[in-house]
Amino acid sequence: METIKVKNVIIGEGMPKICVPLVPEKLEQLSAEAAMARESGCDIVEWRLDRLRKWTDKYFGTKREAAIEEINAGLELIRQETQAPIILTLRSADEGGFAELRRRDYYSVIRDIIDECDPDIIDIEGIDQENEDWFDMVEFITNMAHENDIVVILSNHDFDKTPPMEEIVKRLCVMAEMGADIPKVAYMPRKHEDVDTVIHAAAVASEYFDKPFIALSMSKEGLPSRICSGQSGTAITFAAASGKSAPGQVRVSEMQELLRRFYDR
Known about the structure:
Layout: E1 4-6, E2 9-11, E3 17-22, H1 30-40, E4 44-48, H2 55-60, H3 64-81, E5 86-89, H4 103-116, E6 121-125, H5 134-147, E7 151-158, H6 165-177, E8 182-187, H7 192-205, E9 214-217, H8 223-228, E10 236-238, H9 252-263
Parallel strand pairs: 3-4, 3-10, 4-5, 5-6, 6-7, 7-8, 8-9
Antiparallel strand pairs: 1-2
Helix pairs in contact: 1-3, 4-5, 6-7
């Protein structure tokens, strides 16, 4: 498998790297959450920008420049507390987030962030089945991020269900084709077999491309996918130091122990 080095973290080598979500509702809370992430011993942090209250209204009102300044101020606050690579994520309501954005507006914001901010990694929603132009748009934005030396996660989430195995593999492969450094899928299981579906899809997808990727099943039932999918290629898993960004996330210390037990067998 190919590896990606971001700061001192090598993604795709060894056990899955543990990422902690930072989910403050106010910018003033960000430093404290970043400090807790550092103390947890995680490898990566993810700032869920969409959790900031009123952020969307600010951006599309008369304060766009203030919104961009707020992002850069937040990134600086995180870097004052931890040296871990930062994933910047703006999750739309369509994929389980808090940003009430039309897809066109979502892409516009992401382009501005790439142009004017400097995250180490950016998460971009990579699948839009209702827009026939989505492939070209996402590919363009991905190339734009690479030109700005930003690592790209292209992601697809469904908080209602788990697609069939063949569809999961297809989506991972499509996002890899669009230039994702790390394709990501995360789905909600409705029965135990859905967890096995995601784990199986990870194993199959690893035969089609050599990039590190993320394939997770959510909720408590999905915990096995957050651990054992690393054998197939899943390179990042998620755990909580303070707030959770998705159902089923365990604490960092518990995830560290689970990973050690599984990979030291």
